[in-house]
UniProtKB/TrEMBL annotation:
PANTHER family noted in UniProt: DUF306 DOMAIN-CONTAINING PROTEIN, HEAT SHOCK PROTEIN HSLJ
Residue ranges constituting the DUF306 domain according to the UniProt record: 29-129
Superkingdom of the source species: Bacteria
Gene3D superfamilies (UniProt xref): 2.40.128.270
Organism: Neptunomonas japonica JAMM 1380
InterPro entries the record matches: DUF306_Meta_HslJ (IPR005184), HslJ-like_sf (IPR038670), Hsp_HslJ-like (IPR053147)
Name under which the protein is recorded: Heat-shock protein
Length: 137
């Protein structure tokens, strides 16, 4: 059974970089921010797993996808997040956890539109308008 995760994290010392224009708030940088994944492609997650994304100042992203650690390079262009090929550890977990992990990694492998909900929540929107929701740690 899959349940949505509701997690309140601690605020990081870095703030999300944005630019406000007539077309709305554009996210220009995720440098030095850490996020907990709340949902992936409109699907809830198992409660006991804490999937994470950490964006470094050197355009590197790393995180935990449910069973394995991953890392790679990213860039933001016109509020679109593009993550390059990810390197990952290769542990094996239960089928349910591996499914959830593959769902996240597949989402991160495609261009995603960034949308800011508030100071601590962003959405990554795929080309099917499915939403992956992140909450700042």
């Amino acid at each position: 059974m899959i349940f949505p995760i509701l997690i309140a994290g601690c605020q990081t010392t870095s703030n999300l970089s944005t630019h406000t224009s007539t077309s709305g708030t554009e996210i220009t940088s995720l440098d030095n921010t850490s996020w907990v994944v709340q949902s992936v492609a409109d699907r809830g997650l198992m409660e006991y797993l804490s999937l994470t994304l950490n964006f470094k100042s050197n355009s590197e992203v790393e995180g935990f996808s449910g069973c394995n650690q991953f890392k790679g390079q990213y860039e933001i262009i016109n509020s679109r997040l593009e993550i390059g090929t990810l390197a990952s550890t290769r542990k094996y977990c239960s089928k349910v956890i591996m499914y959830q992990e593959q769902l996240l990694l597949n989402e991160l492998s495609q261009p995603l539109v960034l949308s800011q909900m508030d100071n601590r929540v962003i959405q990554l929107i795929n080309n099917k308008n499915e939403i992956t929701r992140l909450m700042m740690q």
